[in-house]
Every structure is written in structure tokens, then in C-alpha cells.
Design goal:
150 residues, alpha/beta, Rossmann fold, five-stranded parallel beta sheet, 6 helices
Length: 150
């Protein structure tokens, strides 16, 4: 079986690359997918594709709907959804992705530093695992795929 792992959340660190290299090094049958991680493209896609808006509200509205086509599709196809919360910015989109995945009954793993445990208690309650490092995500995937601890 090939596993589909969706990596949602913060875009300001190398956590996705660390998971990807760990999955590859372990030779695991995992396909990774992500939202659009180019911030400018994500913000501007609505206006660039469908035309300019006078209000930032409608600019963001267009962009979020276009981006959600990818996000919804990939979360729905995922076997496991990892949502990373970083220490910068309020990642409302990540929280929304976690809720959407939980509502769909997806296996959800929350990834964040211990400092965020209290603000993310509801997200963590819905998660099947709460990890602190990308390497722990790789170890979880190794275990669930092979059934062996390393």
C-alpha cells in the first residue's frame, strides 16, 4: 500500500523537507502533498486569474476559494494529515485544515512545540498523535507502515 501524507501548516521553516528526507531515507511507501506554500502566489492567485478587486476582502475571498480546491482535494485523498503550528503568526488556516481533517475522520497528527500545547488543546484532542519534531512524524509513519519500532 502507498500512503498519502498531507503536510499542512506553517511555511517558515524546513519541517516539510525534514519529513521528506526522513521518509526517503527510510524507503517508506509514502506520497507527500502540501498546500501552496508560496505565500505571494497563495495571496494573489484570485486576482491574477480572475481579475482585480477593489477591496482586500474580495481579493482574499477569491484567493481562499481557489486555494481551497487544492487543500480540500488533497486532505480528502490523504490517509494521514499532519498539521504543523509554528511559533510565528496565527495560523488560522492550519487550524481550519486540522478541523476539516478531523471532521472527515482522517488520521490527524498535530506537530508543534510544547509552548503551544495550551492554545492547541482542542486540536491536540482531535489528533491521534501530537509530535514535537518532524523526525517524530517519520518515526510514527515507520511504525504504522511496518509495525516495527526502531
Amino acid at each position: 500500500m502507498n500512503w498519502n501524507l498531507y503536510l499542512s501548516g506553517e511555511i517558515h521553516s524546513d519541517w516539510r523537507e525534514r519529513i521528506e528526507s526522513g521518509i526517503k531515507a527510510a524507503g517508506l511507501p509514502v506520497t507527500l502533498s502540501t498546500p501552496i506554500t508560496d505565500h505571494a502566489s497563495s495571496d494573489d492567485c484570485g486576482e491574477k486569474i480572475l481579475g482585480a478587486e477593489e477591496s482586500n476582502f474580495w481579493k482574499d475571498h477569491k484567493a481562499s476559494k481557489i486555494n481551497s480546491i487544492r487543500t480540500r482535494t488533497l486532505i480528502e485523498r490523504a490517509d494521514v494529515v499532519v498539521v504543523r503550528f509554528g511559533d510565528k503568526y496565527k495560523q488560522w488556516n492550519a487550524a481550519f485544515d486540522a478541523g476539516y481533517a478531523a471532521a472527515l475522520g482522517k488520521s490527524l497528527i498535530s506537530l508543534h512545540d510544547p509552548d503551544l500545547t495550551h492554545p492547541l488543546k482542542e486540536v491536540d484532542a482531535a489528533a491521534l498523535a501530537v509530535a514535537q519534531t518532524p523526525e517524530e512524524i517519520v518515526e510514527i509513519m515507520k511504525y504504522v507502515i511496518t509495525g516495527e519500532l526502531t
